[in-house]
Amino acid sequence: MSSEAEAPRIKAKIWVKMALRLGDIGSRPGAVLRRGDDDAGGILVVLRARAGICVLSQIRASEGEAVWMRATGAGPVEQSVADTYIERQVAFDPDLWVLEFEAPDLLPPFEARIV
After folding, report:
1. Would residue 64 be called left, alpha or beta, if left means φ above 0 and alpha means ψ between -120 and 50 degrees?
2. Is the entire prediction scored with pTM above 0.85?
């Protein structure tokens, strides 16, 4: 047992609502492309810009904190590359949520540590 208390995890559905609201507030409209498990579903975030698309995947850092990785690589990719990645991930984990945001700078509308 760890001496440090594990940070409480927010239910996926609540986190999704928060992210969409932050997108609205920040003029970065978002949408749910795929609904996952309300309580414990993982989350993929599609960021759309003129330069292309980036897919972020939520992972846990070694300390247990939620962080994000650019799952489709460091730079923007085409729609087909993003779609293929998302399809693979959903086949592996059918509980995944997929959100999409307009993001001219390919950054999410919510606070995120990207690794």
Report:
1. left
2. yes
Burial of 37 (0-12, 13-18, 19+ CB in 10 A): middle
- Quick: pLDDT tens for 51-65: 999 999 998 888 888
- Nearest alpha-carbon partner for 16 in 69, 70, 95: 95
Name the burial class of residue 46, with classes exposed (0-12), middle (13-18) and buried (19+) by CB atoms within 10 angstroms of its CB.
buried
Residue 27's SS3 state is coil
Q: Which two tokens stand for residue 112?
A: 């995120």
| Domains in the chain, CATH or no CATH each | 32-115 (3.40.1530.20)
